[in-house]
Amino acid sequence: MSMSFSGQVALVTGGAAGIGRATALAFAAEGLKVVVADLDAAGGEGTVELIRNNGGEALFVSCNVTREADVRQLMGRTVEAYGRLDYAFNNAGIEIEQGRLAEGSEAEFDAIMGVNVKGVWLCMKYQLPLMLAQGGGAIVNTASVAGLGAAPKMSIYSASKHAVIGLSKSAAIEYAKKKIRVNAVCPAVIDTDMFRRAYEADPRKAEFAAAMHPVGRIGKVEEIASAVLYLCSDGAAFTTGQALAVDGGATAI
Ligand SMILES: NC(=O)c1ccc[n+]([C@@H]2O[C@H](COP(=O)([O-])OP(=O)(O)OC[C@H]3O[C@@H](n4cnc5c(N)ncnc54)[C@H](O)[C@@H]3O)[C@@H](O)[C@H]2O)c1
Question: What is the reported pLDDT for 97?
Fold first, then answer.
């Protein structure tokens, strides 16, 4: 599928690793200039190096998405370097397994909501005016299948991802006539550091994770990246306000 993205500009938060890195690489492979934002400078610079080694153009900006000043500066650096922002993938997120609801702490609640909800909200708050000024754009926010249903022992994470879908749908309606589309992507279990931290210590959990997906395996980061690129592409021009599950059939059961 040709997506005709050439010469355009994409921003990826959480671009130092996992799903974000794979999506930054996929945007660059389509000829986009990519701004990689993350807390992790070594990982973010690593993503930029991979893109440049493949002949692409990219820039790392250090950013904590929970801080408004950082997010404002991130959008400023993007425009300064590349003149515009066509696509944003707001993907930085954290996951903490906090046990049953009554076992979670206030600090865990604030940490998860801070990155996963406030971070996405702040990013959109500073991206939408740029896209409005240039006459359009597309935003994809990373939710999760945990944003579509229950996630036992991860209720705060689940609530945070439901919130990402609420932010995405509401913004999609508010900006629909302005040629800005906003969608969420909802991965099931994907093979990333986040997954390995959560599951690989216990092989039974890894087996259980594979079995949760009707296709019989967990997902690959590239399989989320291709969904994000589709949602940004002109092929998705009539698709906005959606929460697209990319989940090996898990939510169809
Ligand atoms: N891996 C999965 O199975 C899975 C499933 C569903 C949804 N997700 C979601 O996908 C997204 C990416 O996760 P991943 O699996 O690639 O994880 P990851 O841990 O490999 O990558 C997350 C990245 O976000 C960055 N980050 C964390 N807090 C940040 C902050 N405050 N400011 C800026 N950057 C920050 C990290 O440094 C890291 O580079 C997350 O939103 C996660 O909730 C992951």
Answer: 84
Residues in the chain: 253
CA–CA distance, 117 with 193 (Å, rounded to integer)? 21
pLDDT over 90 at 195, yes or no: no
- Regarding the domain delimited by 9-188+222-245, which CATH topology (the fold level of the hierarchy) does it fall under? Rossmann fold (3.40.50)
Q: How many CB atoms lie within 10 A of CB 2?
A: 8
157 in catalytic set: yes
The closest-lying atom of ligand 1 relative to the alpha carbon of residue 92 is 24
Global confidence as pTM: 0.97
Listed by start position, the domains of the chain span 9-188+222-245
Of the candidates 82, 87, 126, 157, the residue annotated as catalytic is 157
- Per DSSP bridges, beta strands 9-13 and 33-38 are parallel
pLDDT in tens, 173-194: 999 999 999 999 999 999 998 7
Residue 213 φ/ψ, nearest 5 degrees: -105, 125
